[in-house]
Amino acid sequence: MRHASFVEKILFFQRLCCGVLLVLSMTACGFFQSSDQNPERGGVDGVLKTAYSQIGKKYRAGGSSPKKGFDCSGFTYWVYRENGYKIPRISADQAKAGNAVSRKKAKKGDLLVFRVQNSPRGLHTGICTGRNRFIHSPSKGKSIKIDRLDNGYWKDKLIAVRRIVRN
User: Fold this and answer.
1) Is 3 known to be catalytic?
2) Beta strands in the chain (DSSP E)
3) Tens place of pLDDT for every residue, the chain, 167 residues?
4) How far is it, in rounded angstroms, from Cα 31 to Cα 68?
5) Quick check: pTM over 0.90?
6) Is 72 noted as a catalytic residue in this protein?
7) Virtual CA dihedral for 4, 5, 6, 12, nearest 10 degrees?
8) What's the rounded Cα separation, in Å, for the pair 134 and 126?
9) What digits encode the pLDDT tens for the residues 128-155?
């Protein structure tokens, strides 16, 4: 009886060691990496890197991909989705996504919502890049670019800041 117990302990130890080695090898290969740990995807840095990669792409009404072009909400939708964050496709719905943040507490990666027309659909969205700037797909005939929040046109139009990515 004592001998069988010793053999069982050895077998248990072998299985335990094999399991630990398996987990360690999978971790080393990046199998368990979360998107927040990978600067290529996820997190604020991933969101901004993805957004910056689209600078110069043409505006396209209804567009939500690099191949077809982007409208404002298609751009923000695509950027966040590429980094593992789900937000609605339409600006009016994006204005309710994530958590509300005061303008003074806006950080890199936050979704910015602007009132550009007096109608329920008269909203515009962009992504805060820090230093009083944001990246967005402006309008027909223009391309994705970075603008200043204190620019004459945008200065009084910001109506909401939404935190999508937890910093």
Assistant:
1) no
2) 64-65, 69-70, 99-101, 111-115, 123-130, 133-136, 145-148, 158-163
3) 456 666 666 666 566 554 544 444 443 333 333 333 334 457 999 999 999 999 999 999 999 999 999 999 999 999 999 999 999 999 999 999 999 999 999 999 999 999 999 876 799 999 999 999 999 999 999 999 999 999 999 999 999 999 999 86
4) 33
5) no
6) yes
7) 110
8) 6
9) 999 999 999 999 999 999 999 999 999 9
What is d(CA 49, CA 47) in angstroms, rounded to the nearest whole number? 6
Which is the catalytic residue, given 3, 17, 124, 128? 124
Of residues 17, 29, 128, 136, which has the active-site annotation? Answer: 136
Amino acid identity, position 99: N
Single-letter residue type at 67: K
* CA gap 131, 90 in Å, rounded: 26
Residue 96 has φ and ψ, to the nearest 5°, of -110, 0
128 tagged catalytic: no
- What is the C-alpha R_g of the chain? 23
